[in-house]
Amino acid sequence: MTSRAATRPVGTVTRGTTNPNRLRRMDRWIAATHGAELRRATDPVAVDLGYGAAPWTAVELLHRLRTAAPRARVVGVEIEPARVAAAKPYEREGLVFRHGGFEVPVARRPHLIRAANVLRQYEEAEVAAVWERLCARLAPPKAHSRGGLLVEGTCDEVGRRHVWVALGPEGPRTVTFATRLGSLDRPSDLAERLPKALIHRNVPGEPVHAFLRDFDRAWAAAAPYASYGARQRWIRAVRDLTAGWPVTDGPARWRQGEVTVAWKALAPRG
Fold it and tell me: Helices marked H in the chain — which ranges?
C-alpha cells in the first residue's frame, strides 16, 4: 500500500508570480534549438513545471512548440492544488494540468521540462539534487537523438532579460543569455537574472564573473557599431567574445539578442 508521504509532491510552494508573454524568449529558443528532437518523437511531451498562479505560460508554450513540432503536448505541473484547479478551465487538446512537483507526475518520460523562475526561491545547495532528479525523468538518448531537455532559468517580470541553463539526461550542457537589446546598458546587466546555480558565483575568481567582465569589455569595444543599432553592436561584441569563450551558437541566434556558452566554461569552481 502506498503511503501518503510517498505520493506527496516533491518541492515547496513558490510565489507563483507570472505574466503573459513572460517566457517568450525561452520558448522561441526551445522551439528553434530543440524542435527537431520534438518532431522526431512519436509522442512529444513537454512539461511546464511550476507555471504559477495563472496558466498563461503553459498555454503559450503549447502554441510556440507546435510551430516547430505540431504533435507536441504540454502538461502544466503545479505543487499548489488551488492553482491546478484554477487552470483546469484552460485545458484543451494537447494541454492538461496536473498537481505535482519535482517528481514530474506524467506517464511518459518527457522530451522537455521547462522550469522557469522556480529554483530561484531555493538555496544554491539544493540545485544539484533537483537538476539530477529532473534529468533522470527526461526521455533517454536513442539513435539520432540526444534525449530530452531540461531548461531551467530566471527572467524579469516582463521577460526582457533572461538567463537559463539547458541540461540533457547526462547533465548541464549550455548557458544562454537573452535580452531585449533596447533595454540593455551593458551585458553584465543580465547578472541579476542568473539562475540559482550561478547567481551567487558572480564574484572575482569565478568563471561566470570573468565571462561577464569580458562581455562588457567586448561591448565597450563594439561601441562604434551602436550607430547601426543595438543588434549590430551585440553581434560584434559576441563575435569578439568567441575568441576566448566557447560560444556554441551563431549569428542567427545572436540577432535575437542571445548568446549561448558551453556550461563547462561557466560552471562554478569547487
Answer: 4-7, 24-40, 56-66, 81-87, 124-137, 196-199, 207-221, 230-241, 251-254, 263-266
